[in-house]
Amino acid sequence: MNPEPSQNPGNPAFTGKDQPGQSLIRKLLYSKQIGLWVLFIVLAILLFFFVGRNMRFFMVPSASMEPTLFPGDMIVTLNEPEYKRGDVIVLEKDEEFLVKRIVGLPGDSLSIIDGALFINGKYASEPYVRESMQYYIDEPVLIPPGCFFYLGDNRNMSEDSSRGYAHFAGDYDEETRLSYLGVLDDIVGKVRCIYYPYNRLGSLPSYALTNIAGH
Question: What pTM was estimated for this model as a whole?
Answer without folding.
Answer: 0.77
